[in-house]
Amino acid sequence: MDYTNLIAGSWENTSDGCANVNPSDIPDVIGMAALSETADMDRAVASARTAAADWAQATPQMRFDVLDFIGSEILARQAELGQLLSREEGKTLPEGIGEAARAGQIFKFFAGECLRQTGDRLASVRPGVEVDVTRAPVGVVGLITPWNFPIAIPAWKIAPALAYGNAVVLKPAELTPGCAWALAEIISRSGLPEGVFNIVFGKGASVGQHLVDHPDVDAVSFTGSVPTGRAIAAACAKTLKKVQLEMGGKNPMVVLDDADLDLAVAACLNGAFFSTGQRCTASSRLIVTEGIHDRFVAALTTAMQGLKVGNALEAGIQMGPVVDARQLEQNLSYLKIAADEGGTVIGGERLTLAQEGFYMAPALVSETSNDMRINREEVFGPVASVLRARDYDEALALANDSAFGLSAGICTTSLKQASHFKANAEAGMVMVNLPTAGVDYHVPFGGSKGSSYGAREQGSYAAEFYTRVKTAYTLP
Ligand code: NAD
């Protein structure tokens, strides 16, 4: 087995394994990942529970040193880790290396946060009494991650969990075990006491569910699809666990008549199709006002059709393959549904290239209305639809008419409308003249409505989830 579980400081083999397939070149099996059983998860949780008390007492310097080591090694090895990432997930090599570097930067940021943990001392309303408000670790946290950011998402959950003094059990995505294992291997050499970090590979429905249901887990942070997230929230309620969910998006990008056309096309090309559209923040609904609509669709179509699709590891490739056969099938079926519902589909063909991979051309669906399924449901592929709007007011109403609320963008040269949009877009993140995807790591990440649930991730706001607030009163 190439990707084995790390439990209580030991690498453990399982009898069953699951192949890690390169979506750019299907015969290329990168490695085999453990297919764990619930008993493995029980031991990982027990290991985290045993190690949690000492780690909660670790000094800021000890925590800093561990996180700084991990961040430094990831940054030093970003080219190699990025290559592994692109090979197993299918995003282009520059995107893969960029994501690996991001993971390193996240650990560096939270290394610094170890030294910046503060509390409040207040005067009591009672004479002579002192009040201290401090943050304490939650305890054992279960982390469940998706395949589309196989190193950055584990990093932005593990780093704050450790920085704020928690013990961790990670259940990474089945499709991308390589990056998770590489990260675990670095963590195992970081000086972190044994058992504080544990990783268990396997199926979401078995070991993932077991982690969520486990009575000895105090909190669960999940990123993935809406149905899984809803089920996890319900399960956590039963055992009164703290829970944080980051789920899907159907992110609008409004393009107004006064937009800089080249900038708008570049932002939508990036937002819709980069990383093969497999980003929860992808620009999937392009809402365009009448005066610029036809010019915008023509220019975006030309730019989209110029994208070089192919093997993620080859130089010059701008869009890699879809992650697997199931996701490819889902993308193609949404294009059929969109056409059946009256949309005009441009591109989106299944591509046969020199290597056998899950390739498709990027697709734009024009002449759509917001009640069509292509505009209500997340596709999670290189597919964007275009909606016409009479004016800014209608564009804003269309943008907000969604069950999701992760990221919303606007392209305009009007400061007045940009300001109004920032204040009134129903989304956790708003972008002006920028793609809906692409965020910083030192500020909060998350959405509203069906996209997110619970406290925000990333930046110093991560403390909300990974700590419990304690209020202490003293009469000296
Ligand atoms: P998924 O929900 O199928 O799986 C996510 C993780 O949950 C995997 O590790 C999986 O094994 C696990 N899982 C599945 N069933 C489980 C269960 N019953 N109990 C516990 N764990 C379980 O999602 P996916 O297909 O891996 O990822 C794609 C989805 O992730 C998309 O919908 C995308 O929008 C979303 N996503 C959201 C964000 C965000 O921050 N909002 C970021 C990236 C991806």
What's a quick, concise take on this entry?
The active site is at 246. This protein has 476 residues and is α/β, with parallel strands linked by helices.
What does this molecule look like?
The chain is built from 15 helices and 22 strands. A seven-stranded mixed β-sheet has the order 14-15-16-13-12-18-19, with helices on both faces. It has a six-stranded mixed β-sheet with strand order 9-8-7-10-11-21, sandwiched between helices. By secondary structure, it is α/β, with parallel strands linked by helices. Strand 1 and strand 2 (10-12) form a beta hairpin. It has helices at 38-57, 60-76, 78-89, 93-114, 152-163, 177-188, 204-213, 226-238, 261-273, 290-305, 325-340, 373-376, 392-400, 415-424, 463-466; strands spanning 5-7, 10-12, 17-21, 29-34, 120-123, 130-137, 140-144, 167-171, 197-199, 219-223, 242-246, 251-255, 283-289, 344-347, 363-368, 383-389, 404-405, 407-411, 429-432, 448-449, 452-453, 467-474. Helix 3 crosses helix 4 (93-114). The chain is 40% helix and 22% strand. Bound molecules: nicotinamide-adenine-dinucleotide. Nicotinamide-adenine-dinucleotide binds next to helix 7 and helix 8. InterPro entries: Ald_DH/histidinol_DH, Ald_DH_C, Ald_DH_CS_CYS, Ald_DH_CS_GLU, Ald_DH_N, Aldehyde_DH_dom. Keywords: Oxidoreductase. Belongs to the aldehyde dehydrogenase family. It holds the Pfam family Aldedh.
